[in-house]
UniProtKB/TrEMBL annotation, chains A, B:
Chain sites annotated for binding substrate: 387
Stored InterPro entries: Alkyl-DHAP_Synthase, FAD-bd_oxidored_4_C, FAD-bd_PCMH, FAD-bd_PCMH-like_sf, FAD-bd_PCMH_sub1, FAD-bd_PCMH_sub2, FAD-linked_Oxase-like_C, Oxid_FAD_bind_N
Family: Belongs to the FAD-binding oxidoreductase/transferase type 4 family.
Signal sequence interval, chain numbering: none
Chain positions of site Important for enzyme activity: 299
The name this protein goes by in its record: FAD-binding oxidoreductase
Annotated keywords: FAD, Flavoprotein
Gene Ontology biological process terms from the UniProt entry: lipid biosynthetic process
Domain FAD-binding PCMH-type: 84-264
Source organism: Marinobacter profundi
One of the record's GO molecular function terms: FAD binding
Protein residues bound to FAD: 116-122, 248-254
Residues at the active site: 448
């Protein structure tokens, strides 16, 4: 069953090997876990619902608890401490666009705030209800989870917006197709959520971001149904798709997504190459993408991430062997691991692999084959489970991500890491910080930084540690040419930093756009911008 | 010097070979040209300007004549007949963003309508002034035409928005780079115009549409300066770039464009393959793009266009030789010509050519090498000159374009051609109609149809012929899942068809967005939507 207070299926646990435990102990010191509250206790704390009854609305405490929070670190602290603050007053599970229309009418008639809920995987507070006078209804789209049409000639598939990643792929795979959208949250996040928050997946180098995959669909708004027809491209004025993507629920509830799909590829494999240092590795990655080598994914870990991953992998003998082989070829301490995928026709994959190896070599890269790449592919969606294992050991983990142009990548990356690493110095706490680049463009790339620190003696103090790290780094990002988010969206947590990025007129445009659909600001208020 | 009443440089004339003349005579009958008015006569018809003087504003008659019309067929008829209807009251030639700010203040203070003018190449009435009480000032961006910055690491170039195609490319080429944006209007159209109208170029398969090339920039609006910083990608809410692209002057005047550029490719060549019939050819093209073969351009002419192009090419002996070779391989009447480009590293080009030839062969394609491809590349921007030659012979030429999903391409193409071909039947006039597909996506493609008909005895009657063909076909397009424009934009001519495509809520969103920047609707009024 799905964990009510953390990530994923509670039958699945990722164990940290002893070497990993030792590694963290060395880096930040031994952890002391905080005590978790149980579900029953939380359910007993849920106040009565303020909603007038509606046949589609469920007001059971457990439903409300399970829809109150996402997966940000503050969400975790709330779920583990039981200090939720606010719960939605009810949850609806619509099964059709008509159900959604009824819910919108109900919300308007009764002055209810609506929060669209996909997989509940937000790490930026998208789905958290607000304290206030208005009752809050969370609309869980999870029952609208079917592939309803597949046009194999145009390669367009139609899905209910609540379809989660695995059901997107399994329904397509049965017909020989794939969407190819694999965010880290794939197991739980939904296609409608991807659209609403401008998601990007691990193989975006081949399949594109959701911006390239979202072809059209239906959005139920307080003004009626917004239908976006599919055309492959258009110069007919501003693109309505682009107004929906990133609207994070403030325009309406996406009910149907038409997406561009691809036939299952003839070939796919994942490869690993090690580079002697960061500069060579980063230049190789930049050249690869600027050269338009047809890779399907590319991920470049910096030296600390490489070291951390190898330490946490749990095959010490194998790793030692690998390291001695690399050392013979001049790749020693400070080495950086690049993982890349080739996907497509055999001919394309051969060409891409040839180009990648030749280019890598120019930058001192040592190609190690597909063994580690296969490992990566097997474990690609399990990383969030590690958070649970670390939590039980008394460590908090969070990630921060941005994107910037190539000329600024090192500058921004170094500032982010430095700020996090030094962030808890006053409390004499160390923070273990490591980074990879995971989405590549000729213009620049994303920067994805993980930071691990010890939980404090109390939940409040732990939150304060997190808040200091997060807020100072977020400020730093938007003042140093980074976007506040490359793939996680804005939600409520990033909203304070958006004006710096978009400017006053950009914010005016966003407000005016959302306001035209929702003048009373009933839909996901305070998300994207303060009401 | 630039022609005041038609396309391009008046020193350059494209002669139609005798065979071409005969071909048209056979298809639509002999033409009788209408009489052209001269520039002096038109200048004498220009009424006094209603503008209060401003140091940046020029009110000479010739400036106003030269900025009154674009390149649509109604624009031609106006310029050739002298029946302009309306002229702008003046023209400004700003040299900086500050100049543009002054002009915006001047416009607001005096209730003046502003029309941004790039290359004046619109074929949809973007830059035509409106009759009305408010004076109209056209703002010619042509003096802001410099490459001001080139970041070779991030591959981002900064241009004045008025930089025309040749100056974009020559300034980049001197540094070893290319933008790779080659619309048919390349010679005259500007980078700012491309952004404002969501342009697409002949090699969009490699370089992308302007949507992929526009990284950020500056827009002067009546509310202040909208600065869009460059980031490679972002999930930080709705994308402000996407609000500017396709805004067609209604949000503000683009002054600076930062664009994603590429190093000049190691290799580039253009190839031609003939297919025995349309179905095989269209399927081959669809498979090529769905297979993600790394082509840089692809163009597929239907049988009538293939026949027309070969007839108009003017090398009858060579063509006869080609046709007898093709006939030996089973490709005869009804054959369709595919032109494709390979651009990139030698290895990429080799792979792409191999894939294209192998795939073409499966569909009965006969590869004929690069000779005809070279011809295409040499003449790629000269087609608009043909209009002049045909006009002098008494023929009117216009083009219509759209895009639709693959499952609808044949249906829509056939309806468009049928409607045009039958369109002047009541007047016993024939229309020569042919089509190519020129922009390809896994989801669908653009449909680009050319139609040639004889001018009537009068300008009014000629306009009526055109209007009947254009309006009935435009209706047909938007009622049959086509976009009203894939690459020409909306302007004033396509505005009546936009609501059918965008829907009531889509139009509301666009109006609200533009209205937030320009509540008094002073900027390019009636473009995109009626004021």
């Amino acid at each position: 069953m799905r964990r009510w207070n953390g990530w994923g299926d509670d039958q699945y646990n990722l164990e940290l090997p002893d070497a990993g435990r030792q590694f963290l102990d060395d880096r930040v010191g031994p952890g002391t876990p905080l005590r978790d509250v149980d579900l029953d206790t939380v359910c007993q704390s849920v106040p009565p619902s303020r909603l007038v009854p509606h046949p589609l609305v469920q007001t059971r405490a457990e439903d409300r608890v399970r829809h109150a929070r996402g997966q940000s670190l503050p969400d975790w602290l709330a779920m583990r401490s039981g200090d939720f603050g606010v719960f939605p007053d009810g949850v609806a599970y619509p099964e059709s666009a008509d159900d959604v229309k009824h819910l919108l009418n109900y919300a308007r008639s009764n002055g209810i705030q609506l929060i669209p809920y996909g997989g509940g995987t937000s790490v930026a507070g998208h789905i958290n209800p607000l304290a206030g006078n208005k009752p809050v209804l969370t609309v869980d789209m999870g029952r609208m989870n079917r592939l309803t049409d597949l046009d194999t000639e145009s390669q367009v598939a139609t899905f209910g917006a609540g379809t989660p990643g695995p059901l997107v792929e399994s329904q397509l795979r049965a017909r020989g197709y794939t969407l190819g959208h694999f965010p880290q949250s794939f197991e739980l996040s939904t296609i409608g959520g991807w659209v609403a928050s401008r998601s990007s997946g691990q193989q975006s180098l081949r399949y594109g971001r959701i911006e390239q995959l979202f072809a059209g669909g239906s959005i139920e708004t307080l003004q009626g149904t917004l239908e976006i027809p599919t055309v492959p491209a258009s110069s007919a004025g501003p693109d309505i798709r682009e107004m929906v993507m990133g609207s994070e629920g403030r325009i309406g509830l996406i009910t149907e997504v038409r997406a561009r799909v691809s036939p299952l590829p003839e070939h796919e494999s994942f490869h690993v190459m090690f580079f002697p240092d960061w500069e060579q590795a980063r230049n190789a990655a930049r050249k690869l993408v600027q050269n338009r080598t047809q890779l399907s994914m590319l991920r470049l870990s910096n030296a600390v991430e490489t070291e951390t991953q190898l330490a946490l992998a749990g095959h010490p003998q194998l790793i030692r062997l690998l390291e001695s082989v690399l050392a013979l070829k001049g790749v020693r301490g400070g080495k950086c691991m690049m993982t890349f995928g080739t996907t497509g026709s055999r001919r394309q994959c051969r060409t891409a692999l040839g180009e990648a190896r030749a280019l890598g070599k120019q930058f001192g890269g040592v190609y190690t084959g597909t063994r580690l790449g296969r490992k990566w592919a097997e474990k690609r969606f399990t990383m969030p489970y590690l958070r649970e294992a670390l939590w039980q050991m008394g460590y908090a983990v969070d990630t921060l991500e941005t994107a910037t142009d190539w000329d600024n990548v090192d500058n921004l990356l170094n500032r982010i890491e430095h700020n996090l690493r030094q962030g808890l110095r006053e409390q004499s706490e160390r923070v273990h910080v490591f980074t990879h680049l995971s989405h590549f463009y000729p213009q620049g790339c994303s920067i994805y930084t993980t930071y691990v620190f010890r939980v404090a003696d109390s939940y409040d103090e732990t939150y304060a540690r997190w808040h200091h790290l997060k807020s100072t780094t977020s400020e730093l990002i938007v003042h140093n040419r980074g976007t506040i988010s490359h793939q996680h969206g804005v939600g409520k947590d990033h909203a304070p930093y958006l004006p710096q990025e978009k400017g006053e007129l950009g914010m005016m445009a966003i407000r005016s756009l959302c306001g035209s659909f929702d003048p009373e600001q009933l839909l996901n208020p305070d998300t994207l911008f303060r009401n």
